Amino acid sequence: MKETTYDYQPYLEIDGCSSIDISGYKTLETVNGFRNKNTMWITTDRDSLYIFNKGTDDPFYAVDIPSFWTNQLAKAGLNADDSIPQEAFPILLEFDMDSAKLVFHSISLYRSSPDSTYQISYITPGYYLKKH
User: Fold this and answer.
1) DSSP 8-state class, residue 34
2) Which residues contact 44 (CB under 8 A, 6 or more apart)?
3) Are 92 and 84 within 8 A, CB to CB?
4) DSSP conformational letter for 54
5) I want to staple 32 with a disulfide (CB 3.0 to 4.6 A). Which of 14, 18, 41, 100 is the partner?
6) Burial of 40 (0-12, 13-18, 19+ CB in 10 A)
7) Among 32, 68, 25, which Cα is nearest to 53's?
8) Rounded-to-integer distance, Cα 59 and Cα 36, Å
9) What is the pLDDT of residues 66-83, one digit of tens each?
10) Which value, to the nearest 10 degrees, does the dihedral of the CA atoms of residues 39, 126, 66, 46 take?
11) Please, which residues have CB within 8 angstroms of residue 71's CB and are 6 or more apart in sequence?
């Protein structure tokens, strides 16, 4: 549903308060939002999201943030100019990969005007679930 001017919210925090379905996954690891040699970590740089294994400085996965966000919205049945209902939060916070899932604690969004779309301003990682 498209918002009207009086519905305008420049900031939106998508945060997870629901449980995570871990069925079908073999391991669950904590993920940090900063370089850490003892855990997996992510960073965002130049419009891309990078995922690193613990103890490495070479990402094993990278995706450009605009494509990532468009795909997350589509997975939740939303378009970029739709308002984001709270019911969609759990879907938006789970990023499905080939044989894994990255779950975020929160995604912070910003938009500059009522007719602009939300852009990701900050991502707080949570867990990485791996099937094998």
Assistant:
1) S
2) 50, 65, 120, 122, 123
3) yes
4) T
5) 41
6) buried
7) 32
8) 13
9) 999 999 999 999 999 888
10) -30
11) none
Q: How far apart are CA 54 and CA 39, in angstroms?
A: 4
* Per-residue confidence (pLDDT) for residue 2, from 0 to 100: 54
Three-state SS letters, 12-23: EEEECCCCCCCC
pLDDT score of 123 more than 90: yes
Ordered alpha helix ranges (H), the chain: 65-75, 89-92
Q: How far is CA 43 from CA 78, 116, 119, 125, in A?
A: 25, 25, 16, 9
What confidence score (pLDDT) does residue 4 get?
A: 53
- In order of 53, 68, 71, 72, 131, the CA distances from 65 in angstroms are 19, 5, 10, 10, 24
Single-letter amino acid code for the residue at 82: D
- Of residues 126, 130, 129, the one with CA closest to residue 17: 126
